[in-house]
Amino acid sequence: MNFFAKAALAATLFALFDPHAAMAAASDYIFEPVTSEVRNGPGSEIAVKLIHKPSGKPVEGAIIIRTRLDMSPDSMEAMTTTLEPMTETTPGIYKFKADFTMAGGWALKLQAKVQGEPETVQGIVVFTAKQ
Fold it and tell me: How far is it, in rounded angstroms, from Cα 79 to Cα 71?
């Protein structure tokens, strides 16, 4: 094997087995609100977008595996409300229908599986319910 072939093989093996090699991670993703102000009351729609931070592109087809909507931004984490997922109509936008029972700050806590990402992506998005 010539020198260049050996060097290429060594570099490839090093990248495959180096624990610090550049790989995607759950921290490479972020949930953001489409609109942070929402209508207080039953049946309000909220939407978040999932962004791949290094590319800035929306992530479509993620599977939301866990959600919780509570008033932790207003120090009332025990105050929760119902949340119903809606069909994804815009790539990378995940919509929900929620019954906001009180005006104020609400935190949507999400966990999602992204194709090709072994770790669970987690995030918190804060909304303000207005009268």
Answer: 6
Domains of the chain: 24-130 (2.60.40.1220)
Q: pLDDT tens for residues 51-100?
A: 999 999 999 999 999 999 999 999 999 999 999 999 988 999 999 999 99
Q: pTM of the predicted model, to two decimals? A: 0.79
**For residue 128, which of 67, 44, 51, 50 has the smallest C-alpha distance?**
44
CA distance 103 to 112: 27
Sign for the pseudo-dihedral over CA of 68, 73, 79, 84: negative
45-to-28, 57, 65, 93 alpha-carbon distances in Å? 27, 23, 19, 12
